[in-house]
Predict the 3D structure of the following.
Amino acid sequence: MQLNKNMYKLLILLTLGYGCIGMQISAKAQAQQNPNIVLILADDLGYGDVHCYNSGSTIPTPAMDRLAKEGIMFTDAHTPSAVCTPTRYGLLCGRYAWRTRLQSGVLSGYSPTLIEAGRQTLASVLQDKGYQTAVVGKWHLGLDWPWVRAVPDGVKGLNYVPPAGYIDYAKPVKQGANEVGFAYSYVIPGSLDMGPYVYMEDGKATQIPNQEFEGKGFPAYVRKGEIAGNFSHVDALDHLVNKAQNFIETHAKTRQPFFLYFPLTAPHKPVLPHPRFEGKSGLGPHGDFIMQTDWTVGEILKTLDKAGITKETLVIFTSDNGSYMFEMEPGQKDHTEDATVQGYRPEHHRANGNWRGTKADIYEGGHRVPFLIRWPEQWKGNQSVDETICLTDVMATVSEIVGVEIDTTQSEDTYSFYPVLQNGKSILRPPVVHHSVNGTFGLREGNYKLIFSNGSGGRQKPAGEVFGNPYQLYNLGNDPQETRNLVSTDQQVAGSIEKELEVIRNKSNNDE
């Protein structure tokens, strides 16, 4: 058929139109595979501290509840450790920290870096994919400080304070966040209760900590240490959220996707809610601090809204371990200083929900945490998932979302739960390994959980001994509070799980 001039023009226009549509579809598909990513890690926030996980709580958490309503809520998510530093290592490296030199406890603010030079991290993987990467907040993974004198042995202690002049704060650290994949970093070295109290921007102190902070007692517990003139404990959280917002606002205007890791300083001690939150919860300083933590999350969500990038941004919110708060029965007095000035009554709030134990323990309260994930462009909201996952799995999941291969010999403990998010399919994940502050292991296989100790491994008494008998076996399916030890009656199950742990512990070919 011969085309006249008008028909020919029409064909050309249609061809160009379909080409443009195809380009738009391709661009949209590309954007869907390269979402902005915001990873918010609360500090010592318990499973029951978030209202959508604990309807009986009287502490409002509207921002976190918004994430649950607009995203997916995991009810069986676990940290790789019941304390801070090892969880952060596992989250960023996709690897259990007990494979490193850190076999128990946490680092101090003066400790050398835990992430080995050349180690693959979530940040380095995304940076290689073309992401602009940043960390703002609490680091607590060690920094290789420019020591003027030899690093003293005492640096390992959490209360260690070096004599004046031992560190040259005018020089940048030799290795820190920037060397493991973060193009921009603005962090405090350790927890908000340990020195040095200084803001580090791209590995260098924003002001030299040349003053001495005497420390405070409970509930605003802060260790003594070096402090910079521009550092204020009560204002730290606000200061950090402003930095995080600035990063989002700046990079929302560019075509390059960004990854922001935002580890909060709250509601970890010191329990210092900003004055504008004091008395808001009606449950004392810690309740007020939870409200400020939620407000902080809300500010990040509002910033995404204002920048017009909410739909194309993947937000993950979780915590590094359970809460340190004990629930107090009527008439009971605080049995530990860590309970701060108030003990929560069960009828008002259970910081760790109905789970046994607290932060540091091998019991569920130590490591079962809230985990909320939202990506409006891809997943419908208001979903609840009971799949068992670990924070080490964030590495494999995010990598699959953005379409990059990771080195599984470096990140040997990460397994993608992307199929769960995308189409609700279950995943065949190896058993999750739990770890307590004193180095006690636990292994979760199905409903069964075997604890390789005769105690909590942490704060609940008795703490027990690592690999001390008798072990503890619980069936979480019918005994979620871990009250009935089945190790003597279900010996075959215990033996099978014991072999599983041995296999997992021997898996790595590059242990430290």
Remarks:
- The radius of gyration is 24 Å.
